[in-house]
Amino acid sequence: MAKSNVHIVPRGDQWAVKRANGQRATRLVDTQQDAIDVGRNIARHQQVELIIHNQDGQINRRDSYGHDPYPPRG
After folding, report:
1. 34: helix, coil or strand?
2. Mean pLDDT of successive 10-residue stretches along the chain, which has 74 residues
3. Which value, in Å, is the radius of gyration of the alpha carbons in the chain?
4. Maximum pairwise Cα distance, the chain
5. Which is an annotated Pfam family here (predicted)?
6. Where are the domains of the chain?
7. Rounded distance, CA 61 to CA 71, Å?
8. What pTM did the predictor assign?
9. For 52, which of 61, 64, 67, 72 could close a Cys bridge (C-beta 3.0–4.6 Å)?
10. Residue 11 has what pLDDT?
């Protein structure tokens, strides 16, 4: 089974940490930074990508904690 990436997304007045294929949030916190901290720990442990969204839902940043190919493609 493939591991799913971790997303940081706005949810009302809070921030949700959720898996890419999940409907429910893994955790809800009050600030984006708190969500990033929680999501980063999960992404590092699972060796997946952390995808951080802005307040409007657009992707702002991607951090990879997986085994990236070497040399990089491209």
Report:
1. helix
2. 86 96 93 98 96 96 82 67
3. 13
4. 42
5. DUF2188
6. 6-58
7. 22
8. 0.85
9. 61
10. 96
